[in-house]
Automatic annotation (TrEMBL):
Gene3D superfamilies named among the record's database cross-references: 3.30.300.20
UniProt cross-references to PANTHER family, sorted A to Z: OSMOTICALLY INDUCIBLE FAMILY PROTEIN (PTHR42830)
Domain of life according to the entry: Bacteria
GO MF term list: peroxidase activity
InterPro entries: KH_dom-like_a/b, OsmC/Ohr_fam, OsmC/Ohrsf, OsmC_Ohr_Peroxiredoxin, Peroxiredoxin_OsmC
Protein name from the UniProt record: OsmC family protein
GO annotation (BP), single: response to oxidative stress
Length: 142
């Protein structure tokens, strides 16, 4: 199976602009610029797209693993916070923090934590990351 995303760009780094698209059409010519990446201007940036992909991948991995235990989540909120820092003359992704708040009827805390940590490890996007991924998972069945 192969999936693709694409990007285009016109102009210089600071004065130019680009757009990103996905095969599915979920994003179509969505704008990005130097200032949407390194500043606070409207538009997307690669790091938030990686974060969204990571959160979605982890969520599906977690739900699949719950299913093997005949459990189903009532609600999940996953977030992948991707940090980019100056690295010499360029930039590098230096940290990723993945978090989950979940409502899963019928699961105990120990099983929940075990499944969540396994889902993080087996998520294909987690495997792609070349940095340590810090992680926290909170069961909210109250």
């Amino acid at each position: 199976m192969k999936r693709f995303g694409s990007a285009n760009w016109d102009g210089t780094l600071r004065d130019g602009a680009g757009s990103v698209s996905t095969e599915s059409g979920a994003l179509e010519n969505h704008p990005f610029t130097y200032f949407s990446r390194y500043g606070d201007k409207p538009g997307t940036n690669p790091e938030e797209l990686v974060g969204a992909a990571h959160a979605a991948c982890f969520t599906m991995s977690f739900v699949r693993m719950l299913g093997t235990l005949n459990l189903a989540p009532q609600h999940l909120d996953a977030r992948s916070e991707v940090t980019i820092d100056k690295d010499g003359e360029g930039f590098s992704i230096t940290a990723v923090h993945l978090s989950l708040v979940a409502r899963v009827p019928g699961i105990d805390e120990e099983t929940f934590q075990s499944v969540a940590h396994k889902a993080k490890a087996f998520c294909p996007v987690s495997k792609l990351m070349n940095v340590e991924i810090t992680f926290e998972a909170r069961l909210d069945n109250g």
